[in-house]
Design a protein that fits this description.
The protein has 125 residues and is an alpha+beta fold. The protein has two domains: 36 residues, no CATH class; 88 residues, no CATH class. 39% of the residues lie in helices and 18% in strands. It contains three helices and three strands. A hairpin with a 4-residue loop joins strand 2 and strand 3. The protein is extended, with a radius of gyration of 22 Å. The termini are far apart.
Length: 125
């Protein structure tokens, strides 16, 4: 991964050799390079009635999912996108959506159970 640093402004101090090395190390870190290919990219959006034309999408170029979401008082709205380089060998947005809904349903049950347990413990005190 390449980066370019601008020359310091006249009011700025030049960077030291150790600062320059830290910058080099950061931009040459393989984890940073991998972060540009995450298979799931998410973005929270400001609540509104309609969820259209968000301009959000997948980050990885070959096989990835993108989700934008709005959390409201009684629901969560999702926009899901899948991207694949080779047709038939990539993403399955339908399966991803079903898995996401099942996981959120399980999470809801877990939270409801925790709320009941906390209420029961409070009533015992």
């Amino acid at each position: 991964m390449a980066y370019y640093r601008l020359d310091p402004l006249p009011v700025e101090n030049p960077i030291s050799a150790s600062e320059k090395q830290a910058i080099e190390d950061f931009f040459n870190d393989p984890v940073l390079a991998q972060s540009a290919t995450f298979q799931l990219s998410t973005s929270g959006l400001f609540p509104s009635y309609y969820l259209t034309h968000t301009g959000f999408g997948c980050v990885a170029p070959e096989r990835a999912y993108g989700i934008n979401y709005i959390i409201e008082a009684n629901r969560i709205k999702f926009g899901i996108e899948g991207k694949t380089k080779d047709a038939g060998k990539g993403t399955d947005v339908g399966l991803f959506e079903k898995t996401l809904l099942r996981t959120l349903s399980e999470l809801k049950l877990l939270c409801e159970h925790a709320k009941v347990s906390a209420t029961e413990q409070q009533s015992r005190l």
